[in-house]
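Field log, afternoon session.

UNIT: design team B
ACTIVITY: writing a sequence onto a fixed backbone
BACKBONE:
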């Protein structure tokens, strides 16, 4: 068990390069199951979750080779169609093998992911969609045991709410189906666009990229993939907020500003100056000679894309804990995504929770003080890192394995921005 130590109170300055997106890498790796072959995935981040997914695919019989940030997955000789509880319990996204295994083999046995720190997170919409394609799903012994004789049959599938991995699973299931499938009220996150590009590059025929209506014309054969993973918009957002919260200035490179419309609007609303190019974002505070920046209070409401991302809610709350006034944060996606609040309280933050709402009374730029705190999930832990960077004194964050699931080279990147941060054994 390791902990992260931060000597806070230093403004971050400089340049930070963004890695490939975790939430695009995982579905793209799953899609390599669809057809036997050597698949090339470029700009692959090296994270605890991507390593777990490689183990999951190797468990099915795949071979993998990694050179720098290029991962080659050879799925020619897959022998199994089961995703065991031991792997799925460490990473819910393992459920993404369900659709592609059924499309290729007509059979899949995948452990149910179980509960999660941020909410119940059922997969009923994934199962509903597969059943609409003709699959029989039996829930037994904590597993989904699914099968179909012959190819799936295209159909219209309506999502009660736009599930990201639900959309991805059904997209992958439908590409080899007989006939046409239409996904309605589908999710539109940029990571889904990345998957659509990969599948169309493999010979699939999918229309409606970036909209909530995806039309998949089933085909009988696919070829192996060679594609690139998009930059991680959540990692980019995390660094932008960290720079802002420390009163610093800097440039985030190798990112896609167009994937962060709501965040950039909210940061401007908080008083920051934002300059974008196609692949970089420069962030800074207006020059006020001899005065420290004043962080404006801004309300947020998390929504499916292009609304404000729930994966940047905790980080923005850390920023608002340093603002000059009060704001309201409304978390509409997950029912239990305020686990970071109790830890921010330990650093002096003033936050009241009422169901899906959190009322944050800012303490000003230097209003927090360092403390020992505990990470509870991936994004909650990054909000504690931001609070620790802004706080005076030392912060110790335990259970940092949560951070390693989704942030590549975090310590190197923060040190590159002038932060004083290191790891120690617990
Ligand atoms: C994806 O999770 C992301 N994970 C999450 O990022 C992200 O928070 C989430 O989308 C929302 O943007 C990956 O892409 C691997 P959903 P996913 O299905 O697909 C309910 C991170 O920090 N729902 O869009 O699991 C669900 O409970 C992670 O990187 C059902 O009720 O999320 C939730 O309330 C955390 N039934 C809502 O829909 C279903 O069958 C949205 O969930 C599916 C979902």
């Amino acid at each position: 068990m390791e902990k992260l130590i931060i000597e806070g109170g230093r403004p971050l300055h400089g340049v930070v390069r963004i890695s490939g997106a975790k939430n695009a890498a995982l579905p793209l790796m799953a899609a390599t199951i669809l057809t036997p072959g050597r698949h090339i995935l470029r700009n692959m981040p090296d994270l605890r979750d991507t390593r777990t997914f490689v183990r999951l695919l190797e468990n099915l019989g795949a071979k993998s080779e990694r050179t720098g940030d290029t991962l080659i997955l050879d799925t020619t000789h897959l022998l199994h169609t089961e995703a065991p509880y031991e792997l799925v319990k460490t990473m819910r996204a393992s459920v993404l093998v369900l659709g592609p295994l059924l499309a290729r083999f007509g059979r899949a046995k995948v452990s149910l992911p179980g509960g999660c720190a941020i909410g119940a997170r059922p997969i009923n919409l994934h199962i509903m969609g597969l059943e609409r394609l003709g699959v029989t799903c039996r829930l037994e012994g904590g597993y989904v045991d699914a099968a179909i004789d012959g190819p799936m049959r295209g159909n219209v599938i309506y999502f009660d709410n736009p599930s990201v991995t639900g959309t991805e699973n059904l997209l992958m299931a439908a590409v080899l189906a007989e006939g046409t499938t239409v996904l309605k009220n589908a999710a539109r996150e940029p990571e889904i666009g990345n998957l659509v590009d990969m599948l169309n590059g493999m010979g699939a025929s999918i229309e409606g990229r970036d909209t909530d209506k995806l039309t998949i014309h089933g085909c009988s054969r696919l070829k192996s993939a060679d594609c690139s993973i998009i930059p991680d918009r959540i990692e980019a957002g995390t660094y932008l907020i960290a720079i802002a919260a420390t009163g610093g200035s800097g440039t985030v490179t190798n990112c896609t500003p167009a994937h962060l419309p709501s965040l950039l609007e909210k940061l401007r609303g908080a008083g920051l100056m934002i300059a974008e190019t196609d692949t970089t974002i420069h962030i800074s505070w207006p020059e006020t000679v001899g005065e420290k920046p004043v962080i404006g209070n801004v309300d947020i409401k998390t929504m499916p894309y292009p609304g404000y991302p729930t994966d940047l809610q905790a980080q923005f709350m850390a920023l608002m804990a340093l603002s000059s006034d009060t704001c309201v944060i409304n978390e509409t996606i997950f029912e239990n995504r305020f686990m970071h609040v109790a830890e921010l309280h330990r650093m002096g933050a003033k936050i009241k929770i009422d169901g899906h709402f959190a009322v944050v009374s800012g303490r000003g730029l230097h209003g927090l003080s360092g403390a020992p705190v505990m990470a509870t999930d991936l994004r909650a832990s990054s909000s504690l890192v931001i609070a620790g960077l802004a706080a005076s004194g030392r912060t110790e964050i335990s259970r940092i394995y949560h951070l390693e699931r989704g942030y590549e080279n975090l310590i190197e990147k923060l040190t590159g921005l002038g932060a004083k941060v290191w790891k120690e054994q617990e």
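LOG NOTE: DSSP finds 14 helices and 24 strands in the chain.
NEXT ACTIVITY: expression trials, pending approval
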